[in-house]
Amino acid sequence: xxxxxxxxxxxxxxxxxxxxxxxxxxxxxxxxxxxxxxxxxxxxxxxxxxxxxxxxxxxxxxxxxxxxxxxxxxxxxxxxxxxxxxxxxxxxxxxxxxxxxxxxxxxxxxxxxxxxxxxxxxxxxxxxxxxxxxxxxxxxxxxxxxxxxxxxxxxxxxxxxxxxxxxxxxx
Length: 171
Hints:
mainly beta; six-stranded parallel β-sheet; 13 strands; globular
């Protein structure tokens, strides 16, 4: 019986393993959501797209009306066009400290961020005609920018921030 011994310098093996691990961690896919089911569409609504998404994925959203969502994933959701409308309360919850959630250029009426140790960024999420309610609870790093927040009769306040660090920029 022949036996072979493969000699690999330990630093070369360490580099290979580090590169492989980095490639797995840095994995990110792009998911296209289009209510009209146009060319290249992966999903026609946000909740199933978020369910299929992995941390670090980019979710691109074309104009249309979408269902509200709840997520704990560190993803980026970007509206490609104006008129990307989400009816109902969107909830970002339990995001761990190693994750980042970004929401950019969607029209939302209600947003709730709760129990997030990771970074949450809400940019240009004006509802029609404005964001009516923002609630942030027990979250350590939330940034809201370019948003007009104005309450409605059905809400006791336009914003409710408790035990959280929130930065408001150009609001």
